[in-house]
Design a protein that fits this description.
The complex is a heterodimer of chains A (403) and B (358).
Chain A: H1 3-11, H2 13-42, E1 65-69, E2 73-82, E3 85-95, E4 108-112, E5 117-119, H3 122-130, E6 137-140, H4 149-157, E7 161-162, H5 171-176, E8 181-185, H6 193-200, E9 205-208, H7 216-220, H8 223-230, H9 233-256, E10 264-266, E11 269-270, E12 273-277, H10 282-289, E13 304-308, H11 309-316, E14 321-323, H12 331-337, H13 345-348, E15 352-354, H14 370-373, H15 375-386, E16 400-401
Parallel strand pairs in A: 3-4, 5-6, 5-8, 6-7, 8-9, 10-14, 14-15
Antiparallel strand pairs in A: 1-2, 2-3, 11-12, 12-13, 15-16
Chain B: H1 18-37, H2 45-52, H3 60-95, H4 107-119, H5 125-133, H6 138-163, H7 167-190, H8 194-204, H9 213-232, H10 234-241, H11 244-249, H12 254-276, H13 282-294, H14 299-321, H15 332-350
Helix pairs in contact in B: 1-14, 2-3, 3-9, 3-12, 3-13, 3-14, 4-6, 4-7, 4-8, 4-12, 6-7, 6-12, 9-12, 13-14, 13-15, 14-15
The chains are: A alpha/beta (403), B mainly alpha (358).
Chain lengths: 403, 358
């Protein structure tokens, strides 16, 4: 463009408009032609007939997700169960260097193997460590709650960033870290603004609802979702099968024995209400495998069941065991909450256990980190509490007797 | 108006009418017994009376439930209802404002600040360790924190009241102080873990069942002192109703009276908030209910009746919150507001001349 024309354009607003329209049309043309050629020329190595994922995971225990395999991409479906409504969110996990399917427009695409992942819950970290894939984690919520020494060291070295150091997700840090996918925690009815912002910035958010699972194996199986993102199916199948096998062997031991079922209560009073584990919760599911007598086994709630103080107190007086009494760490701490607890048989017999075997000064708890992928150890702990004779050599790992 | 500002403090004075007190006492006793009878665990009526009379109960669990759960809760309800109603009455008279209540000076908000400091801020490891070193823990810690919080706000309000004579200004200052404390609490909440937040939110729902027998002794003592002091202030309160200038002309030291009233109310509201959480609405509703029931503004009559009506209303709320026959429980704070608000509406609609009482 000569100086003359420039001056002319600047002087004439109508001419400016023409220029903009022309330029936009040219760009549109360019992008259209690029799109049509994409499938052929942009993926020179793409072989449409090849099965890119020879080993495939099957989901046997989890109710929260499923994977469907295609030649060069996987469909990941996340289910969120709210009361009776199941909400499904689907993602396309497309092999790097291959084109996304043209018939599934509108779904978020994640290039796999994913190499820059932000994992917002410690439950995910245990899974990454199990898959020996911590190098793909670029960000976590905050170091404070982490138990893993490896992860802490990586944070100190600056290889893993803290994305939520002060209570709120720092979206700019997540974007600046060139995050390819963020794995968050899904809660009922969470219309998380931060997640919406990330999605509009092009970062897919996978909401993991492992806490909604009905049993320990279902919770552990979420490691397969991580493996699917990393194309590590073969390893995860081998490792998970091993855990599953060991878990079933432990169940066998209890099933074969004819131990008496002790009476158990759970939770602790908060205000006037006492939340006990629901009859369909995974916490009770694990105790049920260990053969116990539970006053609310007929209940249908998957989370906790809200009862009033005197209802639970009546059972508490004669219960043999008391599991997970809130944040209490010692017998003294139990009485600090409420002196009426000293009437409980479990208090008199010191048969109160809490999940504090591996918790940290900073308020973290390895039960929610490595405990997720060690369901067999958690189960062995639980059985050891109720029936110590069945596993005489086992030392409690995640649980601890209050003293 | 049945006003006898110069009559003495004798209970046989002309300001006292025995009939309503007898009726209200009967209602109170009835509700008290009903509260002990009803609960989620079904206990035969005969067994409840057996236990209360000190006889051995055939079922140990039942006697423990009655003596350790239902009895302390019912007594707590009586104390809370009485204390908050009396506190509300004093605030409404002091500020000559029908919307005033024990929480109006920011005392409840101050307690919340103290509790939030313990529950939310103490979450960090170092603070929790320091607290453990002090040998404090659990429910006592919450109570002490609530008391300190209320006392700090009270000191601030007292300091301001030395400077400012205008009650309307005091009222606004109190509301603003409450707003500041709420703002601080919400910032703490924002930076807290969900579990800590849950604990704090549960506290704000209010609870009558968390007070054990040992704690009840201390709570009874404080509330007792508060109620007796209010009785001694009834002459002052009557004089204040006639306006500050008139009261002053009667030889009343307005500044001293005001400070005394604020201290007594803080003691009552602060201790109840500490032990039971911020229980709303009883403090506003009951004084209106009492005035309407007695049709008088004489505090010598209002104070004892306020105690009885407040205690009865709280017992009724407790019975409802237990949802008799179910195994669940509703937050007491929601019940008091649900019952309190219609009462206030009913009275305001019925007594169009509300302003005449102030």
């Amino acid at each position: 463009m000569t100086m003359e024309t420039k001056r002319f354009l600047r002087k004439s607003p109508s001419m400016n408009h023409v220029k903009i329209i022309f330029l936009s049309l040219a760009l549109l043309q360019l992008s259209c032609s690029q799109k049509s050629k994409e499938d052929q020329s942009n993926f020179p190595d793409f072989d449409a007939t090849r099965d890119y994922f020879p080993s495939k995971v099957e989901i046997g225990h989890s109710i929260g997700f499923d994977v469907v395999y295609h030649k060069n991409y996987k469909e990941l479906h996340l289910f969120r169960h709210y009361n009776d409504v199941v909400d499904t969110v689907s993602f396309l996990l497309v092999q790097r260097g291959t084109p996304p399917p043209s018939n599934k427009k509108g779904l978020s695409v994640i290039q796999i193997p994913a190499k820059r992942i932000v994992a917002m819950s410690t439950t995910h970290l245990g899974m990454f460590e199990m898959m020996e894939s911590l190098e793909y984690v670029v960000g976590i919520e905050s170091k404070q709650y982490v138990s893993s020494e490896k992860v802490k060291a990586l944070v100190d070295k600056g290889e893993i960033l803290e994305m939520e150091p002060a209570g709120a997700l720092n979206i700019e840090s997540v974007i600046a870290a060139q995050t390819e996918v963020l794995i968050g925690v899904g809660y009922p009815n969470s219309q998380n603004d931060e997640h919406q912002q990330l999605v509009s910035a092009g970062i897919p958010v996978l909401l993991n609802s492992d806490w909604q699972e009905l049993n320990l194996l279902g919770r552990a199986e979420w490691v397969k979702m991580i493996a699917v993102l990393l194309n590590k199916e073969e390893e995860v199948i081998r490792k998970f099968n091993q855990i599953e096998e060991e878990f079933n062997e432990i169940i066998e031991v209890v099933a074969k024995s004819d131990v008496a079922k002790p009476l158990v209560i759970t939770g602790v009073a908060m205000g006037d209400a006492w939340h006990v584990s629901g009859g369909k919760s995974f916490a009770f599911n694990a105790m049920q495998l260990a053969k116990v007598n539970y006053p609310w086994k007929g209940d249908n709630s998957t989370g906790s069941l809200k009862l009033d103080f005197e209802t639970v107190y009546e059972f508490g007086l004669k219960a043999d065991f008391w599991i997970a009494p809130g944040s209490a760490r010692t017998l003294e701490g139990i009485l600090e909450r409420d002196t009426r607890y000293q009437d409980f048989l479990s208090y008199k017999n010191k048969a109160i256990y809490n999940i504090i075997g591996r918790d940290t000064e900073g308020g973290g708890n390895d039960y929610y980190e490595s405990g997720i992928i060690n369901p067999h150890i958690v189960l062995r702990d639980i059985i050891k509490i109720f029936h110590p004779a069945l596993f005489p050599d086992h030392q409690l790992v995640y649980y601890k007797q209050l003293k | 108006m049945d006003m006898k500002p110069n009559s003495g403090m004798s209970h046989n004075g002309t300001g006292m009418r025995w009939q309503p007190i007898l009726i209200l006492s009967t209602v109170l006793i009835g509700l008290f017994i009903l509260d002990l009878l009803l609960g989620s665990v079904k206990i035969p009526i005969a067994e409840v009376f057996n236990t209360l009379l000190g006889n051995a109960n055939s079922n140990e669990a039942w006697s423990a439930i009655i003596l350790k759960i239902r009895l302390p809760r019912a007594i707590t309800a009586i104390l809370a209802g009485a204390a908050l109603s009396i506190g509300g009455l004093q605030m409404q008279t002091l500020f000559r404002n029908p919307l005033a209540g024990p929480s109006i000076l920011g005392i409840t908000a101050g307690s919340s600040l103290g509790v939030a400091a313990v529950m939310l801020v103490a979450g960090s490891a170092t603070t929790a360790f320091t607290i453990r070193q002090l040998g404090l823990g659990g429910s006592w810690l919450i109570i002490i924190a609530a008391t300190i919080g209320a006392a700090l706000v009270l000191l601030l309000i007292l300091g301001i009241s030395f400077k400012i004579r205008d009650n309307v200004v005091m009222l606004i200052v109190g509301i603003m102080v409450a707003n500041i404390t709420i703002a601080i609490v919400s910032i703490w909440q924002y930076f807290s873990d969900p579990e800590q937040m849950q604990e704090y939110i549960l506290w704000t729902f209010g609870s009558l069942g968390g007070v054990t027998n040992e704690q009840l002794k201390i709570l009874s003592l404080i509330v007792g002192i508060g109620i007796v002091s209010t009785f001694f202030l009834s002459k002052t309160l009557n004089a204040l109703l006639l306006g500050e200038n008139y009261a002053q002309s009667m030889g009343l030291n307005i500044r001293r009276s005001r400070i005394l009233i604020i201290i007594v109310t803080s003691l009552l509201a602060g201790s109840i908030t500490g032990f039971c959480g911020p229980i709303g609405f009883v403090g506003i509703a009951v004084p209106h209910l009492t005035r309407s029931f007695l049709n008088t503004s004489d505090h010598k009559a209002l104070i004892p009746n306020c105690v009885l009506i407040g205690a009865s209303l709280m017992l009724l709320c407790d019975i409802i919150s237990q949802v008799p026959g179910s195994q669940t429980v509703l937050p007491i704070n929601a019940i008091t507001a649900m019952i309190g608000s219609p009462i206030v509406i009913w009275i305001i609609v019925k007594r169009r001349n509300l302003k005449a009482s102030f």
